[in-house]
Amino acid sequence: MKKLLVTGGAGFIGSNFIQYILDKQQDLVLLLDLDLLTYAGNLENLEPVKDDPRYRFVKGDIRDKTLVEKLFAEYDFDTVVHFAAESHVDRSILEPEVFLTTNIIGTQTLLDAAKRHWNLDPDNKHSREYRPGVRYLQVSTDEVYGALGKTGMFTETTPLAPNSPYSASKTGADLIVRAYHQTYGLPVNITRCSNNYGPYQFPEKLIPLMIHNARQDKPLPVYGDGMQIRDWLHVKDHCSAIATVLEKGKTGEVYNIGGNNEKANIEIVRLILEALGKPESLITYVQDRPGHDRRYAIDNTKITTELGWAPAYTFEEGIKETIRWYLDHPGWVERVTSGAYQRYYQEMYQQQ
Ligand code: NAD
Ligand code: TYD
Fold first, then answer.
1. Nearest ligand, measured from the Cα of 11
2. Quick one: pLDDT at residue 19?
3. 247: CA distance to ligand 2 center in Å?
4. DSSP sequence for 219-254
5. Would you call 144 exposed, middle or buried from its count of C-beta atoms within 10 A (0-12, 13-18, 19+)?
6. 295 Cβ closer than 6 Å to some ligand 2 atom
7. Is the predicted pLDDT of residue 31 greater than 80, yes or no?
8. pLDDT tens digits, 318-332
9. Where does 3-198+234-260+291-313 sit in CATH, by number?
10. Which residues are CB-neighbours of 273 under 8 A, at least 6 positions away?
11. Nearest to 349 by CA among 213, 227, 206, 221
12. pLDDT for residue 344
């Protein structure tokens, strides 16, 4: 991997990944970040790398075919890591359309450009020969598998059964990635990770939202009974897993990523309150999310045994460090929650 296109690198996981890979991958000569800078994209997340001579930023839309083509022609990428997406379930319930265009059409636009630039005989529909060393990695989610009952875990062969407009759009994207591999032989991987936590996460998601509200003594809105279960992984462990798949993943394979760390939402909320020394009276049970998935849990056997990946963080140290990060960066939180965020928060939680 010498010339890497990262999409959505100004978002939560993308910005952590860019910092991680520039640090670890010394033979990288170019990393181009293509990001539309939606409400979720923030260039401040990339301050630590902005002066790295290997790093470039382009503000643009993954759905813009002309731009994507131009970037491939100009920079001659050999690797794509595709993070850019509309990523929030609650927003997908309010406004599904943009999830379909960004998450599905945006993915297809990137796949098409990769196929055209990497295939050795791009005008021949039967050609399955590609330049050596090229790879397209689709960053997907465990939510494509739907919801679990009290027992069981998602494996890579669990049937896809998404329940929200967000997860349905991510599933659509996964299926088009699979089709480009099956039909055209494009060298792809799909990774499906569980819920991430860590620095730079937009405070619409559970952990940063609860820290943000608790700090200001505002109500902590817990959906339904708060007993929904998510399988939490530190974002840096997600980044190391993606790097492992880029290095050792078998072409065409799907890899689940998770750290065996299931927690009920209410446990997380209580832990945050305790860490901040705030009272449990801030917890406010609100109406449940429509179609709310009850439980997610990742079986990580394939990536741990076949590729030798393992998470480095325990949840206890990771969450402590994460809470500290948000407390130490009040300016970051304030800037990303000004303006449009205020309107979103009102619309989202006004009827509760
Ligand atoms: P995020 O919402 O924080 O960031 C998304 C980024 O994509 C933003 O910088 C945004 O500006 C950019 N973007 C959105 N639409 C774009 C477009 N049309 N063109 C170019 N850029 C665009 O998301 P995240 O939490 O960092 O998630 C990144 C990826 O990881 C997503 O594909 C998501 O589905 C997946 N994922 C997330 C989690 C999680 O817990 N957050 C878990 C598993 C998988
Ligand atoms: P979220 O961070 O939105 O991630 P996802 O829906 O992709 O898993 O939510 C994590 C869990 O927290 C989910 O079960 C919904 C719940 N939740 C609340 O109870 N209250 C909130 O205000 C938010 C944002 C989430």
1. 1
2. 98
3. 32
4. -EEEETTS--EEE-EEHHHHHHHHHHHHHHPPTT-E
5. buried
6. no
7. yes
8. 999 999 999 999 999
9. 3.40.50.720
10. 214, 220, 279, 280, 282, 283
11. 221
12. 85
